[in-house]
Each structure stands twice: as C-alpha cells, then as structure tokens.
Amino acid sequence: MVISEVVRRAARALPTPFLIMDLSIVRENYRRLAESLPSALIYYAVKANAHPRILETLKNEGSYFDVASRGEIEKVLALGVSPQKMSYGNTIKRGEDIAFAYSLGIDLFAADAEMELEKIARNAPRSEVYLRVAMDSADSDWPLSKKFGTDPEHVVELARYALKLGLCPVGVSFHVGSQSYNPHRWDVAIEKAAWVFKKVREFGVNMWLLNIGGGMPVHHTKPVPTVEEIAHVINTAVEEHLGFVDHLRLMVEPGRSMVGDAGIMVSKVLLRGRKPSAGQEWVYLDVGVFHGLMETIEDFRYEMVVDGKENGPKKRFVLAGPTCDSVDKIYDEIELPEDIDYGDIVYFINAGAYTTEYNTRFNGIEPPNVVFTDDVEQMLELEMLTVEAKGEIRE
Ligand SMILES: Cc1ncc(COP(=O)(O)O)c(C=O)c1O
C-alpha cells in the first residue's frame, strides 16, 4: 500500500487519532458504479459514513440516499436533498419517524414483518413498500441476513398483507452481506427475488422495483472482485431472471464501496507491554473498538502499516484499544514490526466505512476526528499544518 505524502505529513503534524478522507476517491467510486450499472438508481447507504462533506460530494454526483433513521434523514435534508431522493431502508422504524418521513414526502419504505407494515400503513398511508428477503451471507465478512429479511414465502404473504393495509407492495430488496467476496451471490439473490415477483403476480401484484442492497467489497487483506465484475453478474442475472417485468427499476444501496477506500485511520501507539505467563506481547493504540474500529469485533481484518517500519522484521502481538474494557481488543494475533514503540504512527488502510459512524466517547476519550486531504493540502501550501492548526480543520 502506498501512503501519500499528504497523509504521512498530516499524521506527523496532527493529533491522532483521525480519519483522513479523499473525496476524489468517493467521486470516482460513484462514477464507476454508475457506469457499470447504468439502469440502476444509486442510493448511498448513509450509515457507512454520514459526514456532511461526503453526503454533499455524493449529492453533487446525483446520488439518491438510503436512510435508516430520522437523524440520517435530517442530515441529508440539511444539504438540500429532495425527500423524493430518499428511501427509508431500515426495517425497524419508530412510528413517529415514519410519520416524520411521510410528512416530508418520503414515500418509499422497507419492511420484513407484519407489524412494520402496520406501522407504515398507520403513519404513511398508501406508501410504497419493498419487502426484504433474507439471503445467505456466506462469502461476506459482515453478514446481515441473520437479522434482516425473511423467507421468500413469507415475503409473498407480506405483499398480500400490505395490499390489505392499503399499501403498495412495489418490490423486493435483499443484501448479500457486507464486504462480499463472491459475485455469484448476487445471481442467487436475484433468482430468489424473481421467484417472489412471479408468486405475487398470482394475486394481481405487478412488482417493478428490485433493490439489490449493498455488499460490494473494498480491498483489505484478501483479493476482491471489482465493481465491474459484480455489475456484470447483476446485469446478466436481471436480464435472465426478471426479463418478464416491464419497466423494472433497479435500485442499489452501496455504503462500504463508496467510501471505504477513500479513508485511512491514523493512530498512534500508546503502550507496549508483556504478559509472560500467557507468552504474549501487547500493543495498545489510541483507537479501538469504541473509537472507530468496531468492525474488528468480528475479526474484520484491515491492512495496517506502521510508519517508517514497513520493511523490518515482524513478530506476533495482541492489539488493543485504549479503554478500560477488555472487549476493546482489536486483534488476538497480528504481525507488527518487532521494534514497534510508543508514539509510532499506525495506519489502518481503507477504513473510510463503518468506522467513525460507530464512534463512542467511552471513558471520556474523544473519537477520531475526520479530516480531508484537500484541506490538508491547502494547509501544507500555506505552511499552516501544525498541531495548533487542528481546530481549523475539524468538522
Ligand atoms: C439496508 C442496507 N442497505 C445498504 C447497506 C450498505 O451495505 P454495504 O455497506 O455493504 O454496501 C446496508 C448495510 O448495512 C443496509 O443495511
């Protein structure tokens, strides 16, 4: 991994931890997906990284937005995005928040349970709903289907129930699991969704919306398929399995793949210690599970670089965060430079997604700040990049 000079200089000058984001990469990711899936509307999954500058960048590219709560709706709305460009994709919503969304003009909601349909019917009468089918999330690093979606047969029942409640069951959604490594999963999922489309036709419902969720991966430590390869599978599967649907609208909800490789988490070593009876050496950083690295609780593996010690000998450590909780352990085993030391800068590569959104202030420790490469570049030009300059580039 080549870390740019801008990032390295920021790492030396700014207090850590911080997430440094490059908006030109976000733009490029959006354009590649739009070109690969020309028939799809792109709804950015705000949950991946809801920083206003990221939302604004995507808004300027023409993105729609998948929102999960009133808070996310308000963030997107504050940027002047029309409510018609939002979909309320969380299957677990407060009744009041559905009413709030509806009052703004949002009329597209997700559901995977009867009670959710009842809430939508009460608070957003006659709205359009798409119903989430559970998918096997094998081949993904962050499975979602254990919690979300339901059996295809149940989805058919939900469509019938939605009709009875006066709602418009317009389509099916799924998610193959976040950070999915296998493009074939989208083919399987689209075939399953097509089965629902056919079944509901038997009682007069002509669905026209297929929401293929997110799931496109970002490069970490294993090879990943490209967005073009995944899109090819999707386009082929839609043609093969859903060719019978007139005017099918395809909707995609990328989160990770829009912002993941646009960010680097920059941290520092706070402590190195030994536990002789366990035969362990530990390294503790100023980031951890409660300060941006939440996904490591499922052993999500980031590529890591220790500044200036990339090429030396390595040894095995336990890696942990700074808080007073034993859950705040990043990796049980990780190879790091054997001379890693207090104050060393540690980069977590491609960490732009699902990091700062999970931040807490546990133990009174401030979460990582978010900074942008264009601001840093400007400050370097103006020779303003000192520790004292931090306040000026905070969000
Ligand atoms: C409904 C929904 N859509 C889209 C996404 C984004 O998925 P990804 O970040 O894998 O692209 C998620 C992730 O949790 C989701 O729950």
Record the SSE blueprint:
Layout: H1 5-13, E1 18-21, H2 23-36, E2 40-45, H3 52-61, E3 64-67, H4 70-77, E4 86-88, H5 95-104, E5 108-111, H6 114-123, E6 128-132, E7 140-142, H7 152-164, E8 168-173, E9 178-180, H8 184-201, E10 209-211, H9 227-242, E11 249-252, H10 256-259, E12 263-275, E13 280-285, E14 304-306, E15 314-320, E16 329-337, E17 345-348, E18 369-372, H11 373-381, H12 390-393
Parallel strand pairs: 1-18, 2-3, 2-11, 3-4, 5-6, 6-8, 8-10, 10-11, 13-15
Antiparallel strand pairs: 1-12, 7-9, 12-13, 12-17, 14-17, 15-16
The chain binds pyridoxal-5'-phosphate.
In terms of DSSP E residues, the strand content is 15-25%
Multimerization status: single chain
**Terminal-residue CA separation:** 27 Å
The CATH superfamily label of the largest domain reads Alanine racemase
Helix content: 25-40%
Q: Main traits of this protein?
A:
alpha/beta; eight-stranded mixed β-sheet; Lyase, Ornithine Decarboxylase, Chain A, domain 1; 12 helices; single chain; eight-stranded parallel β-sheet; binds pyridoxal-5'-phosphate
Characterise this structure.
The chain has 395 residues and is α/β, with parallel strands linked by helices. The chain folds into 2 domains: 5-16 and 261-393, Lyase, Ornithine Decarboxylase, Chain A, domain 1 (Beta Barrel); 24-254, TIM Barrel (Alpha-Beta Barrel). Helix content is 32%, strand content 23%. The protein is built from 12 helices and 18 strands. The protein has helices at residues 5-13, 23-36, 52-61, 70-77, 95-104, 114-123, 152-164, 184-201, 227-242, 256-259, 373-381, 390-393; strands spanning 18-21, 40-45, 64-67, 86-88, 108-111, 128-132, 140-142, 168-173, 178-180, 209-211, 249-252, 263-275, 280-285, 304-306, 314-320, 329-337, 345-348, 369-372. The strands form 3 sheets. Strands 1, 12, 13, 14, 15, 16, 17 and 18 form an 8-stranded mixed sheet that branches. Strands 4-3-2-11-10-8-6-5 form an 8-stranded parallel sheet. A two-stranded antiparallel sheet has the order 7-9. Helix 4 links the parallel strand 3 (64-67) and strand 4 (86-88). Helix 2 packs parallel to helix 3, helix 5 crosses helix 6 (114-123) and helix 7 (152-164) packs across helix 8 (184-201). The longest helix has 18 residues, at 184-201. It is elongated. The two termini are 27 Å apart. 46% of the residues are buried. Residues 387-395 have low confidence and may be disordered.
